[in-house]
Design goal:
Elements (H helix, E strand, L loop, with lengths): L1 E5 L2 E2 L5 E2 L4 E6 L5 E2 L32 H14 L3 H4 L18 E3 L9 E3 L1 H16 L5 E4 L5 E4 L7 E2 L6 E8 L2 E3 L6 E6 L2 H4 L3 E8 L3 E7 L5 E5 L5 E7 L6 E6 L5 E8 L1
Parallel strand pairs: 6-7
Antiparallel strand pairs: 1-4, 2-3, 4-5, 8-9, 9-10, 11-19, 12-13, 13-18, 14-17, 14-19, 15-18, 16-17
Amino acid sequence: MSTVNNMQIQDDEGNVFHPETSIEQIVGENGTQVFPGGKPGNMESSDMTTAFTESKMRENIKSGEKHRVLFGKIQKFFTDLKTVAFSGKYGDLSERPTLGGAAGYKVADNDTTNSSEFLSTARVAYEHGQEIDALSRDLGGLSFGQDADGNWGYKAGGADTVTPFKGDPDFDYEHGISIPYVVAAGNPNVLHYYTMTAEDAAYSYLALFAVTAGSVVSIELSGVSGPSIVCNKPGGSYSFALIANPVLNGKVNFRHGGTGDGHVYKLMIK
């Protein structure tokens, strides 16, 4: 036989409480009171029901609260959860932000496209980085830096000095330079000579255009460190010499078959 009883609870001060939960009481054949679940004196909670109302505000549950309050708070949380909480999809978000940066591009795992719609993968970037490092190792000990004036240049073989890269040509010129001459005994040709200065040595190239009173017979170079070009017109009174990497006190000799003054016009180029 089974009956449904409404429980009544009284505290130490005599206050009477009537819980909303009803318990089905089962009496066995021998009159022993049995609760759902089987054994006398045990109550099986899976058969209990609780009436509750959804809370109006989201609040955290607290120890000691009644079941109807606890379940009301829990239902409020579930009600406020949006679809994305269960789907996990970006498309279910409300007020979605506009994604910029990488999210707006496609991915290319190669280096064969130049389309602005693609970004390369980390693998491609890593492989190209390795190639660039290999190129740096194959520069024969060259490294790069800036000199005291902030000019970019290179350092060779572990040297500390930075050699600036050459930019726009730097040049200077001087004209009407009188050049002395000597007459050697037994030599019919007069020797006019030009001696290179410290200013000349500071430049990469020195171009000399010489004008003499007599026809130039030959041009001789001494103390010159770099390759040079010399030319003169047979029977003419002018000649030309171009010297690479001029050195201090290097000489250019112009021999001609006459007397009189000689002059040089020079152009210095860096």
